[in-house]
Amino acid sequence: MRGTTWTRLALAGGASAACLLVAAPLASAQTTSPAPVAPITLSPEESQQVCGDWVPKLQKKADNLQKRINGGPEVAGSVANLKARAQDQRAAGHEDRAKKLDDRATKRQGKLGELNTAKQKLDAFASAHCKPAK
Prior knowledge:
There is one protein chain. The chain has two domains: 1-38; 42-134. The chain is elongated and about 60 Å long. The two termini are 27 Å apart. Helix 2 runs antiparallel to helix 4 (95-129) and helix 3 (79-91) packs antiparallel against helix 4. Helices cover 77% and strands 0% of the residues. The protein contains four helices and no strands. The model has no long low-confidence stretch (mean pLDDT 82). By secondary structure, the protein is mostly helical.
């Protein structure tokens, strides 16, 4: 039974990811809509596992990533850290390395919009499909 649950969850996740990968370029190109995809049904146990385990983990990951990106210069991987490192490299005369760090900081700052969109979709899924615990 355990293998079956994981198999169905893996298939459900893979199908969702495949749908997103196929739908994103089509939507951005404003072409005709793709053929409808058959809905994925989960058993109550699988649904409970998705809502009880996966959704909170993904929400926590998104929050932690947002904290990391918005962190100060002492937080490794934050935009402020990358900019401070770029400034250090520029002061040391390494302009090429400083430009690469500035580009990474700009790109990472741009990821916040994507992260917020993902969090909104995750919250919408949770409110639509996960019942609050009683």
